[in-house]
Amino acid sequence: MIDWRFIRPDSIFVWNNRKVRERLYHYYNVMKDNIPAKYLIVKRFPVDFSEEMDDCELWDLHSKKHKEFEKYYKDIVNDGLFYHSLPIPKKSFLDLKIFLIKKVVEKCSLCEWRCGVNRYKGEKGVCRLDANVRVSSAFLHMGEEAPLVPSGTIFFTGCSFKCVFCQNWDISSDPLNGVVVSPRELAEIAKKLYYEGAKNINYVGGNPDQQLHVIVESLRYMDVNIPLLWNSNMYMTEKVLEVLLDLIDIWLPDFKYGNNECALRYSRVPRYFDVVSRNHSIICKGNNSVIIRHLVLPMHIECCSKPVLKWIADNCSNALVNIMDQYRPEYLVLKYPDKYSQISHRVPKEELDEIYRYADKLKIVWRPIS
Q: Which residue of 6, 153, 233, 325 pairs with 141 in a disulfide if CB–CB is 3.0 to 4.6 A?
């Protein structure tokens, strides 16, 4: 259990900030057990489907039920119904999601690389993962954004990006760094974190998108009211994002680059800005709780930081933003400083100050959580 003497004071006082409470309204109320986490209702929302239906029929059904679920969930919240009073049906919306995601992994298009490999047959794409999911570590994280602490972080191996400055390179670049877990075992890890005092279950990595088939199925074996947090590079496909929208209570997306060229050079990923801005637009709609992370890179103020913050101000004004100042040369940048000379040093204070002033000018809410 948590020794509350060592909890960061700002993780308590941050909730006195009106703007934080407004933007994280849903997350806060799930965390305080005032309303049920979305996944608890998804698994109680009946859906009649046959595994003999073709892919188009199944996805059309999912889209239809996604729209119906929004109203179903709102009605339950507004009526103050206790989720345990709702029976778990023979076939649920969760079952449909599990079935669809498994089919996606058979010809993998979890992310926009769309490798098309059958991971269940041991084939591997860009992320270098087969269908096995490995957990590198799981613990109560005290260093996340103030509203999230203590965060029940579950670190998965493998990633769809190849960031030359990756600070978690040991688990992101080595898909075998970790212990294989089944859906039931993953649920047990999450429940253990909940009973230890976690405010949320934080799926991270590496990157969690590539582990979605096991994460979604693990929810069959969970029944505790805790917010689910998606800590992602946001390079997933639109169908995958649609599956997640009904399950996730708070989003912690990463938005690194303000253009495609820098992303290709430093993370070796194509069409970055096109894909990631599209996905951010989707999660910022409605009443979703969103904290966007932007890691400031040295000498990337004009090409990346300012365009990203401007885009957020124009398209995700309801989000909180963590302007991250902790960049340090790691991994390949540390190994080949001449090759990556532009980012082979820490961010100068004057560059950070310029970004902070720019964020204030755009009226972005970043100070309470940074």
A: 153
- 4-361: which CATH number, 3.40.50.720, 2.60.40.420, 2.40.128.10, 3.20.20.70? 3.20.20.70
Spatial separation of the C-alpha atoms in residues 188 and 194, rounded to whole Å? 10
Q: In what order do the strands lie in the sheet with 250-251?
A: 179-180, 134-141, 151-156, 201-204, 228-230, 250-251, 289-295, 320-324
In a 3-state reduction of DSSP, which class is residue 23? helix
How would DSSP label each residue in 86-135? SPPPSSBHHHHHHHHHHHHHHT--SBTT-----GGGT---TT---S--EE
Separation between Cα atoms, residue 136 and residue 48, nearest integer Å: 37
Residue 238 token pair: 């639109």
Residue listed under structure tokens 């890691």: 295
For residue 144, give the 3-state DSSP assignment.
coil
* Residues near 63 by beta carbon (within 8 Å), at least 6 away in sequence: 242
Q: What is the pLDDT of residue 80?
A: 85
Residue ranges of the domains in the chain? 4-361
Listed as ranges, residues in the chain with pLDDT below 50 are: none
CB 171 within 8 A of CB 177: yes
Whether 15 and 58 have beta carbons less than 8 Å apart is answered as: no
